[in-house]
Amino acid sequence: MELKGSVAVITGGASGIGESIARSLAGQGAKVVIGDMNQDGIDRVVAEIKASGGKAAGKKLNVTDDAETGALMDFAIAEFGAINLVVPCAGIIRDGLFLSTDKETGKVKKVLSTADFKAVIDVNLVGPFITLREAASRMVDNGWKGVLFTISSIQKEGGVGQLNYSSTKAAMALWPKILVGEFQMRGIHDIRVVSIAPGYVGTPMVKGMDQGALAKILQGVHLGRLIEPEEIADAIAWATKNDAVNATCIEVAGGMISGLIAK
Ligand SMILES: NC(=O)c1ccc[n+]([C@@H]2O[C@H](COP(=O)([O-])OP(=O)(O)OC[C@H]3O[C@@H](n4cnc5c(N)ncnc54)[C@H](O)[C@@H]3O)[C@@H](O)[C@H]2O)c1
């Protein structure tokens, strides 16, 4: 599939990975529509893409809201006439242990709250569900070819302290197989579904982590450094252009190593 001239809707496009994907796709001739909660971030990214000769537009939304997400898709169609690529990057973390026990007494002193569990499920799982549904309905009804992406994570394997986040990222990794299976049943052959599972990416969120903890994490990464957001954007562009990439989850993690034995 050609990137040039295609229309990409990117949620969470006002920061980090989504921003990088928006810049990268626009730089390769796609028309990008950014949806995010952060209006200032939308304005900044849209203005910068336009200033460098790209085509971009943006609209504020909360991805957990049906009507606002549907309105983002209608906005994309009104601006650029179609929807071809959908990249739901809006995401949050609310890390915490399922049970935190007191080091001295061994008794439970804190639990992962229902609010923190639900908040992550809402944005990272319900959000992409609504985003992909609202986009795909319009794509199918209009016969527009394209790719639906999901953003998973290496934490799909189970990140300690991330029961909520990992649950959503495991789901993101398996959606391509389910959705493509359903498309096959219904004879929808020109919409692919691909998941990208990044490792530790140098977005503001990760760069702001405790540097000691980060150095320890990077000991288990063959690449030896944080992944650049542009490297995730490259994977999205490659997967878009290669029609054989479908119903799969691709890790872009720099080589995560488990079971290291100290010398
Ligand atoms: N940074 C990493 O190392 C990493 C690794 C693997 C996966 N990911 C995933 O990549 C995606 C982007 O992460 P990032 O690091 O770029 O984060 P980020 O915090 O830089 O960007 C997330 C964006 O989502 C927006 N957003 C949050 N909640 C929203 C909502 N309800 N509605 C609309 N917009 C909302 C924020 O305003 C922000 O602009 C997330 O799904 C994250 O889980 C990140």
Model description:
The protein has 263 residues and is α/β, with parallel strands linked by helices. It has one domain: Rossmann fold (3-Layer(aba) Sandwich), CATH 3.40.50. The protein is 44% helix and 18% strand. Helix 4 packs parallel to helix 5. The protein starts with 6 loop residues before the first strand and ends in an 11-residue tail after the last strand. The model has no long low-confidence stretch (mean pLDDT 96). The structure holds nicotinamide-adenine-dinucleotide. Nicotinamide-adenine-dinucleotide (NAD) binds next to helix 1, helix 4 and helix 6.
- Assigned CATH class: Alpha Beta
Shape: globular
CATH architecture: 3-Layer(aba) Sandwich
What distance separates the N and C termini?
A: 48 Å
Work out the helix count: 8
- Major sheet: arrangement of strands: 3-2-1-4-7-8-9
Number of domains: 1
Task: Give the amount of beta strand, in percent.
Answer: 15-25%
Characterize the biggest β-sheet: 7 strands, parallel
Percent helix = 40-55%
CATH topology: Rossmann fold
Unreliable spans: none
Order of helices and strands: EHEHEHEEEHEHEHHHE
Q: Give me the count of strands.
A: 9
Radius of gyration: 19 Å
Instruction: Name the average pLDDT.
Output: 96
Bound small molecules, which ones?
nicotinamide-adenine-dinucleotide
Strand-pairing-aware structural class: alpha/beta
CATH homologous superfamily classification: NAD(P)-binding Rossmann-like Domain
